[in-house]
Specification:
about 300 residues; alpha+beta; Alpha-Beta Plaits; four-stranded antiparallel sheet; about 30% helix
């Protein structure tokens, strides 16, 4: 029978086909028969295969869910918020990224080494409902960064920061922990984000004035800076302050709540902070307004 089967293959070479004209080789004790499957037969077989596949996938999911439910029943995870501060000079931003050092990666490592989270949660942070309130780019620091996640109820104590800080690098500190509702999401619940742009005051000095650390900015110049910064307040299209976006991209429109030089932010080493507060801000919308302020408020060089 095998010889007859091979002879049929030789006589009828395989060609391209569609599902509706699929030719089927049927082998039986009587020999090999060539017949065409109807579309109904093909669809029926596909449906059965999908049902079988779906059933197997559901079974696997059920097993995983049951295992997770059994683990959570013992650990009793509850939603909390963590207050972080960090010096971003040594990190490639806040958000976890493969093959580079990030703040989130160090946080997850510390939680794992402290036996607070499981290895599966370290590998898949979404399984513990992890969310950050805001992102920071490479080299950017944060004074008050909030993240939300689910932790075992027995670990939610006032000793948690000290326990985790033992495994964190000195550039990152866990300041506090607080219980929140199970539906709390740090990103959704955040109603504003404040960024600061530090700049030397002598950047606003004129050609005739001493352009060095010995320069002392005047009250008139500070007033002029604040007046210029008010141009950013409100809803504007920040396309000219972004990169890699099209002019009509809706994401270029951002709402700025406030933008000003804070009086308390004038430091002893002649640095000042420009504070920008908005609902959501792009990286460029933080850095480039500061540069534009320099160019607009500083007197002409030539």
């Amino acid at each position: 029978m095998l010889r007859r089967f091979l002879s049929v293959l030789t006589a009828y070479p395989l060609t391209s086909y569609s599902k509706n004209t699929l030719t089927v080789l049927r082998m039986s004790s009587e020999g090999v028969n060539l017949s065409k499957r109807s579309p109904d037969e093909a669809n029926c077989d596909e449906s059965e295969a999908k049902k079988l596949k779906s059933g197997n996938e559901e079974s696997v999911c059920d097993i995983i869910n049951k295992a997770a439910a059994a683990t959570n029943k013992v650990r009793k995870p509850k939603k909390v918020t963590l207050l972080l501060c960090y010096l971003g000079k040594e990190f490639y931003g806040m958000q976890r990224n493969s093959n580079v050092s990030t703040v989130e990666e160090e946080l997850f490592k510390a939680l794992l080494e402290s036996n607070i989270i499981l290895k599966s949660e370290f590998d898949f942070p979404k399984s513990m409902k992890f969310q950050r309130a805001a992102r920071t780019d490479k080299g950017v620091s944060a004074v008050r960064q909030i993240v939300s996640l689910r932790l075992p109820v027995k670990e939610i104590t006032s000793e948690l920061p000290e326990k985790v800080n033992k495994h964190l690098p000195p550039e990152i500190r866990l300041v506090g922990v607080k219980r929140v509702t199970q539906s709390f999401d740090a990103k959704i619940a955040c109603d504003a984000r404040t960024y600061s742009y530090m700049t030397p005051t002598f950047a606003f000095a004129s050609k005739e004035e001493e352009n060095s650390e010995n320069y002392r900015i005047t009250e008139e110049r500070i007033k002029e800076i604040n007046e210029f910064l008010q141009n950013y307040v409100g809803t504007h299209n920040f396309y000219n302050f972004t990169s890699g976006r099209l002019p009509g991209d809706p994401s270029c429109k951002r709402y700025i709540i406030s933008c000003e030089k804070k009086d308390y932010a004038l430091l002893s080493n002649n640095q000042l902070f420009i504070m920008i507060t908005g609902l959501t801000l792009t990286a460029e919308a933080i850095m480039t307004p500061g540069g534009a302020t320099h160019k607009s408020c500083a007197p002409p060089i030539g």
